[in-house]
Design a protein that fits this description.
This is Putative iron-regulated membrane protein. The chain crosses the membrane at residues 68-88. InterPro entries: PepSY-ass_TM. The protein is of the alpha+beta class. The protein folds into 2 domains: 1-60, no CATH class; 62-128. 45% of the residues lie in helices and 13% in strands. It has helices at 45-58, 64-107, and strands at 9-14, 22-27, 34-38. A 3-stranded antiparallel β-sheet has the order 1-2-3, with no helix packed on it. A hairpin with a 6-residue loop joins strand 2 (22-27) and strand 3. The chain is rod-shaped. The termini are far apart. 0% of the residues are buried. The mean pLDDT is 84.
């Protein structure tokens, strides 16, 4: 409905050739003439791109079937991210444990060393 008694009716709908954007028509309520049209061919390339972003992002230009496809691929991407994080964390924990084990083995004194002199007190190449 128009905002006041002198305003035009605005009718809009999705384009057949490009369903991401709306086309609009303004109709004079007193003589039923079309006063203004806003077709896709009248839009600049910037208006077409910015107007197409929301329908592509939300998937609301085809219907429920496209939203279900978007949902499926969203779940698939989420599962890929979590599996990648699990693989990375297991590998990192395993490698970190191996490095810590090697450090612990290197820090243990040999049986040939004098037990009264701590291993850290000896210089490299020096034995007790």
């Amino acid at each position: 409905m128009p905002g006041n008694a002198y305003a035009h009716y605005r009718i809009g709908g999705r384009s057949v050739s490009y369903p991401l954007l709306f086309e609009r028509v303004s109709v004079n309520p007193y003589n039923a003439k079309i006063e203004q049209t806003r077709r896709i061919s009248d839009l600049s390339w910037l208006e077409i791109i910015t107007g197409s972003m929301r329908p592509l992002h939300t998937g609301d230009f085809v219907g429920l079937s496209l939203k279900l496809v978007y949902f499926f691929f969203g779940i698939l991407l989420t599962m890929m991210v979590f599996s990648g994080m699990m693989i990375w964390s297991k590998r990192t924990f395993r490698d970190t444990a191996a490095v810590l084990r090697e450090r612990k083995i290197k820090q243990q004194p040999n049986e040939q060393m004098n037990p009264q002199i701590p291993a850290y007190a000896l210089n490299k190449g020096e034995s007790a």
